[in-house]
Amino acid sequence: MKYIYAIILSLICTVSVADDVPPMPAPRVSLFSTTVDWAAVTGLPLHQYAGEIVGKNKNLVREGLVLYYLDSFPCYGEADSVRVWLSPNGKMSGHLRLVCVAAPKTISFAWRNATEDATQSRTTGILNCPTDGKRDFTIDISKCDIGPNWTEYK
Radius of gyration of the chain from Cα atoms? Predict the structure, then answer.
């Protein structure tokens, strides 16, 4: 009989302690990109494309504009060539090189206003830009549309 009481008491203690255990944290998300398989999935070969940003947009550029290319079909950015900076007078610093299965018609960037030598910081939101659709494509910054800020995605 003492043995049964001991088991019941230990079960009660276990249940009461289990209520005090904090919940497990949400699992971290692991992203497995499909970009490396775009050629296999589409049957189209990958080619390198280079982009240049031209034009002026004083309301958007201000003291400078940092742009980070956001991967999107049909292209993904080469690791060392997805960040560019635009000066207030329209000069581009950095390279925009993409690997694509077809010439991009539009490109999206994460953006923020900053000087050229500013430290890395959070971006403001999304910027959608049409291209001229060529192999060495051009983006006219004055034709880009400012999309939602990141806070609007919540």
Answer: 25
**Digit-coded pLDDT (tens) for 63-121:** 999 999 999 888 989 888 999 999 998 889 999 999 999 999 999 999 999 988 888 78
Give me the phi and psi of 143, to 5 degrees please: -100, 0
Dihedral of the alpha carbons of 138, 59, 81, 53, in degrees to the nearest 10:
20
Length of the chain: 154
Buried b (16+ CB within 10 A) or exposed e, 70-105: beeebbbbbeebbbbbbeeeeebeeebbbbbbebbe
In the chain, what is the straight-line distance between the N-terminal and C-terminal CA atoms, in Å? 58
Please give the Cα distance from 107 to 126 (Å, whole number): 10
Structure tokens at 153: 């995605």
| Residue 154 to residue 151: CA distance in whole angstroms | 6
Q: Smallest Cα–Cα separation from 55: which of 86, 15, 99, 24? A: 86
**How confident is the prediction for the chain on average, in pLDDT?**
83
